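Researcher: Please generate the 3D structure of the following complex. Treat every line as part of one assembly.
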Amino acid sequence: MDRIYELKMCYDIIIIGAGPGGLTAGIYARSRMMKTLIIEAGRVGGQLISLYPEKGIHNYPGFESVQARKLSDRLYAQAESLGCDIHDNEKVNEVLDGDEELIVNTSKSQYHAKSVIVAIGMGNFNPKKMCIPGEAELTDKGVTYILPVKEGLVGRKVVLFGGGNSAIEMALISDTVTDTAIVHRKPEFRADECNVDALKHSNVRTVMNTAAVSFNGSGKLESVTLNRNGETYDVPADLAVVNIGIDADLEVLKKWDLKLTEDGRVVVDLDMSTSRNGIFACGDVVDYDGKNKLIITACGEAATASQSAYKFVKKPYWA
Ligand SMILES: Cc1cc2nc3c(=O)[nH]c(=O)nc-3n(C[C@H](O)[C@H](O)[C@H](O)COP(=O)(O)OP(=O)(O)OC[C@H]3O[C@@H](n4cnc5c(N)ncnc54)[C@H](O)[C@@H]3O)c2cc1C
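Model: Done. Output below.
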């Protein structure tokens, strides 16, 4: 769309973040024919595309199992085909009060909207690093934080680091095509029983109570040094996948003048309204007692947030 036209236009709704929450909010907004813009700081798809594209999702209703990349692609295609304007690689910095509308300032432009939905998930997020020798030098040269597509694993010696569901699920995917080990520094995994059970019945080698000491190789990863009970030893590896958590940064929220919880997440009412008039929120960025950070939760809250924004903007006599 022509940027000059966009600048003059006042959207009914601007959605910040294009993860499952933001995309679903867009889908529901368009079913009400609201002029909708979704602004995404990185890649459309949120955590699904940026953190675990190869992982299977087994708890999204309607699919026994669906690859995260595919679910994200479908949400994207649905939001786009229904008429949402979607901008990627554009970060929202400020949401200001205008005379009669909200003003959204981004890294690229300024937009006006009658309502806003904040769906920024974990904010700016990056996989946690191990901070051991060799990691920085060999990143993308055999050390990675996201499991490559299966074809890229064939014939490689893969060592995964981590003890949660995500690390185990990556190990199980890798195991279907190549030699795979998983290293965890604790005596037990911290994961769903079904994943631990699947691991037991796979060919993945599990290495417990063991810490990574260094990644080794000149120009590309050749081995990893491990430490178990004070003894160090080398294991040959040409792909190390680190999956030990996420560093999330929600600092940007502090500038948006929203009421936040102690750990910096957005406080909402039952209709997903925030402390600021015309601003709603949904997904991982929102917190309340009993909150379960899942795709389906983000989508459910998005439907409510979108409906509330619709009522706020259009004020239908019947709603
Ligand atoms: C490894 C892993 C595996 C998981 N597996 C599952 C699973 O199997 N099933 C399940 O239900 N859940 C799973 N989850 C949880 C699920 O991914 C989240 O609950 C879900 O992604 C939340 O969606 P969201 O739209 O709220 O946020 P996100 O997916 O985080 O999307 C938010 C988007 O907002 C963007 N953004 C942030 N700041 C700005 C800004 N200032 N301006 C513009 N855009 C911004 C981000 O770049 C991001 O794309 C998993 C999570 C992880 C980390």
